[in-house]
Amino acid sequence: MHRNLVALDFKNNQHQLPACHDSPPLKSGTPSPGKSFPLRRQNSHAQETWQTLIEFQLKDFAARSQSIRARNPASGRHAKLWRNSSLSCYSAVMHVRSLIIPILIGGVIVWGAFNRDKTTSRVSGTIEADDARLASRYGGRVEKLFADEGATLTNGQPVAELSASELAPRRAALAAQFDELVKGPRVEEIAAAKKTWDALAAELDNAVTEAKRKQDLFSINATSDTERDAALTRARSLENQAAAAKARFDELVAGTRPEQIDRLRAQLREIDTQIAELRVAAPAACTLETLHVKLGDVVPPAGPIATIIYPTNLWLRIYIPEPWLARVATNGKVSLRVDGFPGEDFTGVIEQVNRKAEFTPRNVQTVDERVKQVFGVKIRLGDSVRLRPGMSADVIFQ
What we know:
Elements: E1 7-9, E2 14-16, H1 44-71, H2 76-120, E3 122-135, E4 140-145, E5 152-153, E6 158-163, H3 167-183, H4 187-219, H5 225-254, H6 258-277, E7 279-281, E8 286-291, E9 298-299, E10 304-321, E11 333-338, E12 346-353, H7 367-370, E13 374-382, E14 392-397
Antiparallel strand pairs: 1-2, 3-10, 3-14, 4-6, 4-9, 5-8, 6-7, 8-10, 10-13, 11-12, 11-14, 12-13
């Protein structure tokens, strides 16, 4: 007679108890097959499952026993044998139940804790890099291209050169004016101004003498007041002309005023800046990501010419829920992994934690809504030649 009291099929999630042979009715005090057994409140779902299973198996056991007894009434020895067999089956079921339920409950708890730690300690984001768009503040026609897309550029390396044909003549005119002012008036101009002043000074002397003579004649009534006034007016006019000629001579001798030289110098610097802006160069070590122009294109002022990225300035932005804030601190270190290098950890430093939450309802009413708040975190990755912008990364907080 088989003594396998319990058969468990864990693969198919089926638990079967073997059927026993005929047995007489159980003693008083022994639970009958139709009654349920009290279970501890360790896990409601496990309790209900096992209680239903045991009730089903005991009912089946009682039915089989009654059928066998009806066909072959047992003697006292047989009755005792079946009574002991039924008690052994019941004891085995209860023993197995007492062992399996705690194991299942413990496994569920450990599995939940492991998966909760696994999900809450990681968060995904996309690696990004600092980029810049190169442009000229002054428009022009693309005349030369010095680099191709994907090229590595050094500080000051040219990328493109524009052409503006009107700037060169304007600079030449300003440069000529500047040189003229710096050199000052010519010697011939100074000499001519000196002669003009001397001539007016001589005429002034004669006019003053004539006006004095007319005044004396008028005092003895030898001339009219009209002649006297005319002589005096001419003397005063020549005096003013002589003063102007002298000022002109002094101005030429002193040379050009410094303010005029400074004004033209500033205009020259402005046009030189415009010419320099026609040559677009890399501001630092970088990678040429995209060229937006072709040879012959006319670029407007501040129009984009190329996009560059700084591969040494990689960073990652992630979003964490509010309960994680206690685990995040500025300058803290984190580990991250990328699909391109499985099993290898990279290090990052938390550079910024946003002070304001995002993706939150305006009026938070419940705890469930409050925990949905997320805060942006920026992680600086440092210099890594293997990491590239656009890679997806999983951040692991240490």
